[in-house]
Amino acid sequence: xxxxxxxxxxxxxxxxxxxxxxxxxxxxxxxxxxxxxxxxxxxxxxxxxxxxxxxxxxxxxxxxxxxxxxxxxxxxxxxxxxxxxxxxxxxxxxxxxxxxxxxxxxxxxxxxxxxxxxxxxxxxxxxxxxxxxxxxxx
Length: 138
Fold this sequence. Notes:
By secondary structure, this protein is an alpha+beta fold. Helix content is 24%, strand content 41%. Strands 1, 2, 3, 4, 5, 6, 7 and 8 form an eight-stranded mixed beta sheet that branches.
């Protein structure tokens, strides 16, 4: 199974200081920290679908890059109780606006983290590595 995700970020700090901040959201059921993600959408390029997920799940919009940072794997639980490996392509999104209201605001929490804190907060080792790498090079 293939999915798409977004790594929402913004640059914080004063003049001459540019440390990126990463936005994570909670999952609906387990309340663990994740990135906005979903399934590819017909008629949209993968990065465009990822931007739609960011708006629906995290209430953020911005400039999405068409090239994925990389991918990570996780075990996705099906409604039947079975689990399947999902491979998730992650696209960086430079957040330009945080919406005051959005589709899933009552189902999720959103919070800004430093790259190191975000990497520590997520459960998936490959996603944590992507976040650390992104924080080092942004």
